[in-house]
């Protein structure tokens, strides 16, 4: 299990206003190999968007990050920062972290 | 509800090996005002640690970030990056994001 943390500069954040395009994009993300969940993040003040993802494996997280980085660039994002982390499960369990049991 | 994303350079990551000190720290985090959950993240290869937190309010997230940044420095962390994000709830719901209902 891997956590993918992505954030980027994006001038066109819309807050809770949703375009049909973003709903379609979210639906398509459910079909990505190995995705467990995604939290969509945004900071209107500094015009930064992002996402926190849980994937089943490093390979699937890495493949998604490569594809998504290119997609973000075509959408007008810049300063894209993506890091794939391990999850420390024992400590995360103590703090109610929403990570399923492995295995 | 706010998502706090923190990551930092840390030379002493231990993977799944846990010291009693880290367990105590995790337990204390459960007592922080407004904390809903924390996921503990680490990347051994690049010696980067971090955490993804969900808080009930911006004020509580901001207060924790200030306190935690100082604590991380005393623990030997550097290049500390902390960003408080809004969560786009409609898109997050589409992707099974582990965020409780508000209100």
Automatic annotation (TrEMBL), chains A, B:
Provide the protein name: Monooxygenase
Q: Which organism is the protein's source?
A: Neptunomonas concharum
Q: Which Gene3D superfamilies match?
A: 3.30.70.100
Sorted UniProt keywords: Monooxygenase, Oxidoreductase
Can you provide one Gene Ontology molecular function annotated for this UniProt record? monooxygenase activity
Output the SUPFAM superfamilies linked to this UniProt entry: Dimeric alpha+beta barrel
PANTHER family per the UniProt record, alphabetical? MONOOXYGENASE YDHR-RELATED, PTHR39169
What NCBIfam families does UniProt report for this protein, alphabetically? PRK11118.1 (NF008333)
Q: Name one Pfam family in it.
A: ydhR
